[in-house]
């Protein structure tokens, strides 16, 4: 684009359901659950959550029971407003518990949630979005793979929700002493606090890695879009044959295009953008 060669790391091709960063983030969590001889995975997500369905699928494949706490008690018993994601989670054997937004915010601290978890034998709790230290380790392996392929990007770009994926990329860049900036594209409005979560996952130590979160490309907020974003994604897919999910990669790829247009990323650079999957959530279609 404008003379800049962009490498697209097609991590979305790693699995049809446990796709992209989901595979990376779940891998060490599932290994830890198995090591602890836990049979019961517990996690959290919204009605369209890629993480929820990835966990349901992985649990089903590997013989775990799975319980998903879903944001929004209005969904309880009201199938008419269920997403395809929820139906699929249920078909994969995940037990769904719908909780109010207040309880959802509190997670395991909410007494209703604590009570349900308390009834399970050796539950293994995976946080919302699958983000924790184990997820960070899994994502860092992606950077190791790039190093083995002798890919030496000047920037690594990814979308940011909970920040676990970005923390993993920063960790990987640090492990390999790479001269590479990590750029995260916030997909939610007002996500300033995620920086502290990332710092915490990095062990509260100052890292030498140059990393920055871009907050200007959420296009109105989570799952919101603009005609410009939609036009960009449709055109990009037509030109390159690479589908972009509506929620995450649409915004990171759009942000990269804008950075190239503005000259922030130039022909001197070798940007690599991670396609983190999420395609079950749908793509923008031409009318
Ligand atoms: C497809 C996809 N890409 C990126 C992200 C953002 O990752 P993170 O929550 O680790 O910031 C998510 C959410 O987990 C996702 O589902």
Summary, kept brief:
The protein has 287 residues and is α/β, with parallel strands linked by helices. Helices cover 40% and strands 15% of the residues. It has a 5-stranded parallel beta sheet with strand order 1-9-6-7-8.
List keywords for this structure.
alpha/beta, Rossmann fold, single chain, 287 residues, five-stranded parallel sheet, binds pyridoxal-5'-phosphate, four-stranded parallel sheet, 2 domains
Structure description:
- This protein is an alpha/beta fold and 287 residues long.
- The protein folds into two domains: 7-15 and 132-281, Rossmann fold; 39-121, Rossmann fold.
- The protein is 40% helix and 15% strand.
- It contains ten helices and nine strands.
- It has helices at 21-35, 50-62, 84-91, 101-106, 111-118, 133-148, 164-175, 194-201, 227-240, 249-262; strands at residues 7-9, 40-45, 65-71, 95-99, 123-125, 155-160, 181-186, 211-214, 271-274.
- The strands form two sheets. The protein has a five-stranded parallel sheet with strand order 1-9-6-7-8. A four-stranded parallel sheet has the order 4-3-2-5, sandwiched between helices.
- Helix 2 links the parallel strand 2 (40-45) and strand 3.
- Helix 1 (21-35) packs across helix 6, helix 2 packs parallel to helix 3 (84-91) and helix 9 crosses helix 10.
- The longest helix is centred in the middle third of the chain and has 16 residues, at 133-148.
- The chain is globular and about 55 Å long.
- The two termini are 26 Å apart.
- The site of pyridoxal-5'-phosphate has 19 residues, from helix 2, strand 6 and helix 7.
């Amino acid at each position: 684009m404008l003379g800049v060669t962009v490498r697209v790391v097609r991590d979305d091709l790693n699995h049809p359901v446990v796709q992209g960063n989901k595979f990376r983030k779940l891998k060490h969590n599932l290994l830890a659950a198995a090591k602890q001889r836990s049979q019961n995975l517990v996690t959290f997500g919204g009605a369209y959550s890629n993480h929820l369905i990835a966990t349901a699928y992985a649990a089903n494949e590997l013989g775990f029971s799975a319980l998903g706490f879903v944001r929004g008690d209005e969904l309880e018993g009201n199938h008419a407003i269920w997403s395809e994601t929820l139906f699929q989670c249920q078909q994969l054997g995940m037990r769904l518990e719908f909780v109010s937004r207040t309880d959802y915010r509190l997670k395991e601290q909410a007494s209703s949630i604590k009570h349900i978890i308390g009834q399970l034998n050796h539950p293994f709790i995976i946080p919302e979005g699958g983000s924790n230290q184990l997820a960070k380790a899994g994502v860092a392996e992606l950077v190791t793979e790039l190093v083995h392929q002798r890919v030496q990007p000047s920037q690594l770009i990814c979308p940011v929700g909970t920040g676990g994926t970005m923390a993993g990329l920063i960790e990987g860049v640090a492990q390999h002493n790479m001269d590479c900036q990590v750029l995260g594209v916030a997909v939610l409005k007002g996500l300033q606090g995620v920086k502290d979560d990332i710092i915490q996952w990095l062990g509260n130590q100052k890292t030498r890695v140059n990393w920055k979160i871009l907050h200007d490309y959420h296009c109105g907020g989570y799952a919101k879009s603009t005609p410009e974003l939609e036009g960009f994604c449709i055109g990009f897919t037509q030109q390159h044959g690479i589908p972009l999910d509506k929620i995450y990669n649409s915004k990171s790829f759009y942000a990269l295009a804008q950075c190239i247009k503005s000259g922030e990323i130039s022909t001197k650079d070798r940007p690599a953008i991670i396609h983190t999957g999420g395609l079950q959530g749908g793509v923008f279609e031409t009318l």
